[in-house]
Write a structure and sequence with these properties.
Elements lengths: L12 H4 L13 E4 L20 H9 L33 E4 L3 E13 L5 H8 L1 E10 L6 E2 L2 E2 L5 E2 L1 E13 L3 E13 L5 H6 L27 E8 L5 E3 L5 E3 L19 E10 L3 E12 L4 E16 L29 E13 L2 H7 L3 E14 L4 E3 L13 E4 L3 E7 L5 E9 L3 E9 L5 E11 L10 E3 L4 E3 L16 H15 L8 H14 L32 H13 L1 H8 L13 H15 L10 H12 L3 H19 L7 H16 L19
Length: about 700
């Protein structure tokens, strides 16, 4: 059920079956030889891209620079080099397109491996569901240059496409929960890559001197009536590894390899490996590698690399007019990531999934069960040994080509290390210094070995750093966001200010609810009158309280988990966002289940969840999320109460999207927490009101 690769294995017939009188570009294939049949790897085998250990890194540092030879294109034809006067290998404007592997050394292990819970398929399906608008392109696995995705009305090549994907969760009696995807697309842009146009003015450019091209916007096209790119059904199949934020790695559990039989030279198993990364819960990157395994798996050819970037537009079950602007630019209009941007020290949080192969597991699971582990390290990445610039005369030896540096902060790689381990990976870098990574490893026996997802945060000098706070071992160490034009010598906030902000909130958290405390009694009465104005309260112990969603007639028994602050949160919500409060209290929106969540008890649980998520009972923040939130708390001492309101509204939206019932409450809360964590780490979150979900609240 693997989806077709854009412009390679499906989609527009203009790409696959061009007219006879049209010139069709030769197919690019990157070839790697490996010991996939159990033999020794080729002497030109390379290191794993992001996961090279210190010993291998030391070996690579000592290795002398190799002499490179001109690379021949498939079919026996080679591209003539550009004139010497137009070579740009030393120009600042040159673009690195492909390179060898980068060296990664582990500096410190911050947290050793420990087990984590297996993600929920239903939660994953809910995170994936919705209408997604995006862009797509295909790239050569040899040169990393953009390749045509189709032909225009004048038989010209088109290099970009807009996509509209509708992803819905459904139920099948055989497979259980399924994820159905239908993608429509339109092709555009006969000019090619804008950065290439501005980087070169020789005969190899597209004849356009400007750096960008004025392309029609996404909204210009009616994609609902356009051609279908693909239709796919995703089930909990043996080869898929998924995470609850909607990211996943999808491919075969076993690659068909074995002894090479020359009489069956025409048999070349071809697989698609689809990997998706999620940024900030509403943006995702999806890359499809199409790879051919020849000679029993010893000869690996990457046929095509397709890249999509999409933004969540609306729920799949709610009709929204297609007028919302899409702030995702076509790949041709973006700059490529520079290798220097990925160098230096990184703090890496990694979650790995390792399959367990056994007959018993196969009988029970229908494939392989996965063990999920997490760890945290400090790593240092250094520049690749060699790279190819656009316009450079000497082409890199194909055995050294590992990383494709693509537009939009994307890097893709297919690599075989000296032990014969095949790694298929993708990373997505953003300017705020966060790099998301997904890697998929196969052993020499062709079996899936491991899948890793990583969140890497770049350590920078204080003036550059976007991490708001890093708590040192012996005290508070601050790095500040410096706006443009700000004085680099501006003083940091005093330690006392930081500790005071946190201490005030902790003092509130430590107060238990006391049914004999007059102040607490008055607060409870105020909550009733804010919830049901005009309705007389018969007493602090009354069956009336059940109408608000307390478990019994005495609400004081439900405050044990949240304390008095949970009552303060509910009261703040009722007074400051009365419209949203009433909508949730009375369950006014959406198609509700017969057995709904109890409003008040849910509110207490949300308070408890936020305290745990932000690690607010610790003397100092011990997590990135806690550190980020403390910055927001300094800006607004009511940040926790506002975050509570955001969370309650977001939880209810998740509840409706998942068609949840009372028994699904914990699953919904977990999904809500993950989205909050992603939003808090978004760029440009300077105050709590900058969170995307804040827009759900209504006064």
């Amino acid at each position: 059920m693997q989806p077709p690769c854009l412009g390679a294995c499906g989609g527009s017939p203009a790409v696959l079956g061009a007219s006879a009188h049209c010139h069709r570009p030769s197919t690019s294939r990157a070839t790697i030889r490996c010991a996939a049949r159990g033999g020794k790897a080729s002497s030109r085998g390379k290191e794993n891209v992001w996961s090279v250990d210190n010993e291998r890194a030391a070996e690579q540092k000592g290795r002398s620079q190799k002499n490179h030879r001109g690379r021949r294109r498939p079919g026996g034809r080679s591209r003539a080099p550009p004139p010497p006067g137009s070579r740009k290998e030393n120009d600042a404007g040159s673009r690195v397109l492909v390179s060898g592997a980068m060296l990664v050394e582990v500096e410190t292990v911050l947290q050793t491996q420990e087990s984590v819970l297996r993600p929920s398929w239903d939660t994953f399906a809910s995170s994936l569901s919705g209408v997604w608008k995006g862009v797509g392109a295909v790239f050569s696995p040899i040169t990393a240059e953009m390749e045509p995705v189709g032909l225009g009305s004048k038989q010209e090549y088109l290099y970009d496409c807009y996509t509209l994907s509708r992803i819905e969760k459904s139920y099948d009696s055989v497979h259980g929960t399924e994820i159905q995807r239908k993608t429509n697309w339109v092709q555009l842009n006969p000019h090619g890559e804008a950065e290439k146009q501005s980087a070169s003015d020789d005969e190899w450019s597209h004849g356009i001197s400007s750096g960008t091209v004025d392309l029609p916007a996404h909204e210009y096209f009616d994609l609902k009536k356009s051609d279908v790119l693909d239709e796919d059904v995703m089930i909990e199949e043996p080869g898929i590894v998924f995470f609850e934020d909607g990211s996943y790695s999808r491919g075969p559990l076993d690659i068909e390899i074995g002894e090479y039989d020359e009489s069956k030279y025409f048999l070349s198993p071809t697989y698609q490996f689809e990997q998706s990364l999620v940024k900030g819960c509403h943006k995702r990157l999806r890359i499809v590698h199409t790879i051919e395994f020849n000679e029993g798996g010893a000869n690996i050819q990457t046929v095509r690399v397709a890249v999509y970037e999409e933004k969540w537009a609306s729920p799949a079950n709610i009709h929204v007019e297609d007028i919302t602007p899409v702030d995702v630019r076509p790949f041709s209009q973006r700059k490529r990531t520079k290798p220097s941007e990925l160098t230096g020290p990184w703090k890496v949080y990694e979650v790995s999934a390792t399959p367990i192969f056994s007959e018993k597991v196969k009988e029970i699971e229908g494939g392989a069960a996965f063990v999920y582990l997490c760890m945290e390290t400090m790593k240092k990445r250094t520049l690749p040994e060699s790279s190819v610039f656009f316009g450079e005369e000497e082409m890199l030896d194909m055995q050294d080509v590992t990383i494709l540096w693509l537009p939009g902060g994307v890097t893709a790689y297919v690599d075989v290390d000296k032990d014969g381990i095949l790694c298929i990976g993708v990373s997505w870098y953003s300017e705020e210094g966060i790099n998301l990574v997904m890697e998929r490893d196969y052993g020499t026996d062709g079996k899936l070995r491991e899948v890793r997802t990583k969140t890497e945060i770049k350590r920078r000098l204080p003036i550059q750093c976007l991490l708001s706070l890093i708590v040192g071992e012996h005290g508070w160490t601050w790095t500040m966001v410096m706006p443009r034009g700000a004085d680099a010598g501006s003083p940091a906030l005093e330690d006392a200010t930081k500790e005071e902000c946190l201490q005030r909130l902790q003092n509130r958290i430590e107060v238990p609810y006391d049914s004999q405390n007059r102040e607490h009694q008055e607060a409870l009465k105020a909550l009733w009158h804010a919830s049901f104005p005009g309705t007389e309260l018969l007493g602090l112990v009354s069956d009336q309280w059940k109408e608000m969603g307390w478990q019994g007639k005495d609400p004081s028994t439900d405050f044990r988990g949240g304390g008095f602050i949970s009552l303060e949160n509910l009261l703040y919500f009722a007074k400051n966002y009365p419209k949203s409060f009433e909508e949730l209290l009375c369950k006014q929106n959406g198609d509700r289940a017969l057995w709904e969540y109890p409003f008040a008890v849910a509110g207490v649980n949300i308070t408890f969840m936020l305290i745990q998520m932000l690690d607010l009972q610790a003397a100092k923040p011990r997590s990135l999320i806690g550190a980020v939130f403390l910055n927001l708390l300094i800006e607004n001492d009511r940040a926790f109460d506002i975050l509570y309101c955001i969370t309650f509204k977001l939880m209810d939206r998740k509840w409706l999207e998942m068609h949840a019932t009372y028994m699904d409450f914990n699953t919904v809360i977990k999904s809500t927490r993950r989205q909050l964590e992603r939003e808090l780490l978004l760029e440009d979150i300077q105050q709590i009101e900058d969170m995307p979900s804040y827009g759900f609240l209504a006064r």
